[in-house]
């Protein structure tokens, strides 16, 4: 059987119609050179208002289009419409565009159109939180969003139980909001069925931004801390431990003892 070679960013003589650009946690120092270049080359930049404000220093003289939360389809369609006009379009996505970001939606919506797309990776919240906590993700881990806006809670709960039974380190995105807290409470209940209350938990809010907060606690008392939509939780597995201000999950190396 003949194999098809796929090169994601090789569009032949055609430049990408749309670039979906991951801007990382929001600090300009963590914006990749490729992301900077994509934004500098764009004629129009589309994105959620908060994310556009984080790259405002690159948007001078550019046309911008912004919309609020839960308007992702509107932003994707606007990007497509602008690309059909022949404009160089960049869509800004927080973190990495392929991880709970805009890349998937735009690719789905692009199917009827003769347009090309390039995904520019960024540092996702799991990477940022892990760096601030030390080395909690040194072994197998799962990333789960607690937002049941697009995924039924029954499915999320099944995944939490599977991760607990499999002894995965867990990274939790979208843990709670002002109107939605019972999901994080239920998550704690589920995980306490599989691991000890003293399991280390890292709570990282607004990673690498001016209002950054980093707390290390335990699974047993994690709900005593402030958690919102800008928070990433890292919950250790059965081997994870705390040492000072770091959370460490051993990779399994046999370290010589002198």
From TrEMBL:
What pathway is this protein said to act in by its record?
A: Cofactor biosynthesis; adenosylcobalamin biosynthesis
SUPFAM superfamilies per record: Tetrapyrrole methylase
Presence of keyword Transferase: yes
Q: Which Pfam families match?
A: TP_methylase
Entry's EC annotation: 2.1.1.131
Annotated region Disordered: the residues are 1-21
Task: Tell me the superkingdom of the source.
Answer: Bacteria
Q: Cite the record's Basic and acidic residues compositional bias ranges.
A: 1-13
Q: Which GO terms describe its biological process?
A: cobalamin biosynthetic process; methylation
What does the UniProt keyword field contain? Cobalamin biosynthesis, Methyltransferase, S-adenosyl-L-methionine, Transferase
Q: Which GO terms describe its molecular function?
A: precorrin-3B C17-methyltransferase activity
Q: What class of enzyme is it?
A: transferase
Where is each Tetrapyrrole methylase domain found?
20-221
Q: Does the keyword Transferase apply?
A: yes
Family annotation (NCBIfam families):
cobJ_cbiH
Protein name (record): Precorrin-3B C(17)-methyltransferase
